[in-house]
Amino acid sequence: MEGGKIFCRSIIIYYNNKEVFMRAIIPVAGVGERLRPFTHTTPKPLLSFAGKPILAHIIDGLLDNNVDELVLVVGYMGEKIEQFVKERYSIPAKFVWQDKLLGLGYAIYLALEKIPDDEPFLIILGDTIIEADISDVSKTDTHKIGIHWVEDPRRFGVLELSGKRIIGMVEKPESPKSNWVIAGLYYFTDARKLRSSLNYIIENNISTRGEIQLTDALANMLNDGEVFESIVIEGWHDCGKPETLLATHREMLDKNGNVEKLEGNIIIPPVHIAKNASVKSSIIGPYVSLGEHSQIESSILTDSIVGDGTIITKCVLDNSIIGNDAAFSGRAYRLNLGNSSRVELEWE
Length: 348
Description:
By secondary structure, this protein is α/β, with parallel strands linked by helices. 19% of the residues lie in helices and 31% in strands.
C-alpha cells in the first residue's frame, strides 16, 4: 500500500495487437434501489470501499490493460458520474444518456451509437468487479462471454456449453439447463451484428420480464450462426446489495489490504485506512475501510465500510456501511447509515 491507497486490478486484459483501438462500454444508468439509503444521494457506481469508488476499481483495471476509450451509459445522477470520470481520468470518455430504464439490452443499444460497425469492443457491467486472465481475448475471430459457476442460476443469464463453445443461452430461466451464468464481461469482434440483433428485438417488442435483455439479443445472434466462446471468471464480485458489497469489500481487502501501525490503537488487518483519516483509542479490523477525513474515536469497528468525512465515537460496529459526512455516537452492532445522517445512542 502506498499513500493510503489500495491498488486493485478489477479485470486483467491483454491485447496481442495494441494497434487495435479498443473501447469499453460500461452501463451505469441504474437507480440502485437495493443499495438505499446510500443511493439516495450517491449513484451506485460512486459508492466507495477499499479506497475508491466501484467505478474506479473497474476503470483502473481497464486502463492498466490498454483500453483506449470508454463509453458510459448514464442516467440516474449521471451528472455526478460524468464529473467524476472527467476529473479523475484523462482517457477519452463518451457519455450516452439513458432516459428510459428498459433493461441492459436497451442500454447497450444506445451505447452502440458510439461504436463503429467494424471495430472490436468490450462490455463491462458497472456493478461488478471481475478478476480474470483473459489474455487470449483477441486471439481468435469469435465473440467471447465471461462465465461463472453458481449454485442457483435462476437469477442470471444461463448458458449451455460444449467445451468452451456456447451453444445456448436464456435469461433468468425457471428450470436452468446448467449452473454456468453470464458474469458481466463481453467481448465482440465488431458491433454490426449485435446492433442488428438489438434492433430486431426492440422493433419486435421482444422482452423478458418486461425488459429489453442483452441475453435475448445474444441468443438471437447464436441462432443466426454467430460463434461465442466462454471465458471462465473465477473472481466475480457483485456490488449490487449491502451484503454483496460487504462480501466484495472483504475479498478486495484480503488481496490488497494493509496499513501501518497507528499509535494508541489496535489495527487488525486486512484494512484500508485513508492517509488523512483520524483514529484515536480504537480497535479497527479486520475488514474495515475508513474514508478520507473520517474520524474514529473510542470505538471498535469490524467488517465495515465508513465513508468520507464521517465521525464515529464510542461505538461498537460490525457488518455495517456508513455513508459520507455522517455522525454516529453510541452503541450499535449492525448499521446501514446514509450520507449526512446524525445518530446518538446512550451507552448502557
